[in-house]
Amino acid sequence: MSKKERSKINPMLSDIQQKVLAQLMEGNRVAVIDLIDEWAVQKQYRTAVSEILEPVLHEFGERWYRGEGLSLSHGYIAGKIAEYLMEKCLEEEEQNDAAPRKKKGNLVIGNIEDDYHSLGRMMLGRFLEISHWQVHDLGNDVLAEEFVDKALEVRSRVIAVSAMMYTNALNIQKLRREIDDRGLGGVLQLAVGGAVFITRPNLIREVGGDGTAVNAFKSVELIERMWQTSTTLGELP
Q1: N- or C-end of the chain: fewer Cβ atoms within 10 A?
Q2: Are 83 and 51 contacting, i.e. CB atoms less than 8 angstroms apart?
Q3: Residue 8 C-beta-side C-alpha neighbours within 13 Å
Q4: For 133, which DSSP code?
Q5: Taking the chain, what is the end-to-end CA distance rounded to the nearest angstrom?
Q6: How far apart are CA 60 and CA 74, in angstroms?
């Protein structure tokens, strides 16, 4: 990617967001972390997630989706920055809590069969951990039956599945069928996510998802609502 392409300005981003994005596009992880650390001194890391990380990674993902020359190393660096910030949020949460909070429940997450775009899933997992869920991350390229088997094993009422591209997202239909064929519709809720669900809202219904969210923060709220819905519809076998 040329310097001209990397320096494209999105007027919707704030000054700090522009600075972080510019360093991310240059592959400068240390500079990004320094910028966020300096900003978080006056505020909080949790606030940095919503006011810096989320919008920057959304713009980053849009550029990736448009094929603007980003490499796998850019994705790796973005993932490491997200992981660092999530760790700082966890430390912050532990310092603020007088006593450890009880886990809300077990959740199963993963990327659907043939999908290897792990950044969004990893961010979701970190947000869920911060929100006191016990996360079982099955990783990339997970088969439908593996999702359901794990959910039943750990008594998870929600499966959160991610896909980046349309062709891979269609594999979520297999997971929908697996849930329904086992008579688990409703009591085992299916949350779907990934860039393609933002650009194609009708895809949620097409693949059989019970809901989606525009970012990791909203995903936590969605999953909590889904868990409550599940409890009103029955018990897991």
Answers
A1: C
A2: no
A3: 12
A4: -
A5: 52
A6: 9
**CA 211 remoteness from chain centre:** 14
Q: Determine the number of helices (DSSP H) and then strands (DSSP E) in the chain.
A: 13, 4
- For 159-182, write each residue's pLDDT tens digit: 999 998 899 999 999 999 999 999
Q: Using a cut of 0.85, tell me whether the model's pTM lies above it.
A: no
Distance CA 138, CA 124 (A): 13
Digit-coded pLDDT (tens) for 59-93? 887 787 677 777 778 878 887 888 788 788 878 87
Nearest residue to 7 (alpha-carbon basis) of 68, 75, 89:
68
Q: How many residues does the chain have?
A: 237
- H-helix segments, 7-99: 15-25, 29-42, 45-48, 54-65, 72-96
Burial zone of 42 (CB within 10 Å; 0-12 exposed, 13-18 middle, 19+ buried): exposed
Q: Which amino acid is at 2?
A: S
The radius of gyration of the chain's CA atoms, rounded to the nearest angstrom, is 18
Cα within 13 Å of Cα(167), Cβ side: 2
| Per-residue tokens: 110 | 């993963």
Residue 138 · residue 108 · CB < 8 Å: yes
**Three-state DSSP class for residue 61:** helix
Q: How far apart are CA 31 and CA 27, in angstroms?
A: 9
Look over the chain and give the mean of its residue pLDDT values, rounded to a whole number. Answer: 87
